[in-house]
Design brief:
234 residues, alpha/beta, Rossmann fold, seven-stranded mixed sheet, 9 helices, 7 strands, 37% helix, globular, disordered N terminus
């Protein structure tokens, strides 16, 4: 049965329309660049993209991690509810095989089993019906394919900071929903792998961040700011 395509709600997409510059600028700061480095390492380790595969990046934003995946030889369909975000991601991709689609993660405009793998990074925070979103990601993934979802960890001081800031003034995280490792794990009906990264804090000296990250990784801490899950579609 053909699924109806629903245009993203304007009030939802407006949250992100003016954010591309600020979002990308954060990753150029010393601590932001380190955050991106460790997040990308964890994503690629879990996703394991292969040449020739077609991957959905659901909630792709400005395409912060798209080039890392594209450089492995995969093709990407980037979906987001914000047109300005999509335009920025398309510009970044250059000549790589990267197509953009304006759409909603709760109602993906793709047939079942359309993608070899699916990834979604820091989009789940803005979706109340998280289980519905995960079901959609599973639906469009081929049998045997991987679904990798990353979000901001509610057990991390980073989430606490975002929540405190949102109480003082209107921010993009005012209505965000941060989830714990157990909460993320429970969103799928199959067992998954849960890992975290970014164990240092925003105010930490960037020169110490690699040491702190290494210690957190060695201890297997579940409080890293970047919480990621991988499930395999049976």
């Amino acid at each position: 049965m053909k699924r109806p395509y629903l245009t993203p709600k304007r009030e939802e997409s407006r949250l992100f329309d003016e954010w591309p510059d600020e979002y990308d600028l954060w990753f150029t700061t010393p601590i932001g660049a380190l955050v991106r480095k460790y997040e990308a390492e964890l994503l690629l380790d879990l996703l394991e993209p292969h040449p020739g595969e077609t991957i959905l990046d659901a909630g792709c934003g400005t395409g912060v991690f798209a080039l890392d995946i594209l450089s492995r030889g995969a093709s990407i369909i980037g979906l987001d509810i914000s047109l300005p975000m999509l335009r920025r991601s398309r510009e970044k991709a250059g000549i790589y095989p990267f197509q953009v689609v304006l759409g909603d993660m709760l109602n993906l405009p793709f047939p079942e089993k359309s993608f070899d793998r699916v990834v979604s990074v820091t989009a789940l925070e803005f979706i109340e019906d998280a289980q519905g979103a995960i079901r959609e990601l599973f639906r469009v993934t081929q049998k045997g394919g991987s679904i990798v979802v990353a979000t901001l960890n509610s057990l991390s001081p980073w989430a606490s900071r975002r929540t405190a800031e949102a109480k003082k003034k209107q921010t993009i995280f005012t209505k965000a929903i941060f989830r714990s490792p157990d909460e993320l794990r429970s969103l799928a009906s199959v067992e998954g792998v849960i890992r975290t990264a970014v164990h240092f804090h925003k105010e930490d000296d960037p020169s110490r961040a690699p040491e702190i990250e290494g210690a957190g990784r060695e201890k297997g801490c579940n409080t890293g700011a970047f919480l990621a899950a991988r499930w395999e579609k049976q």
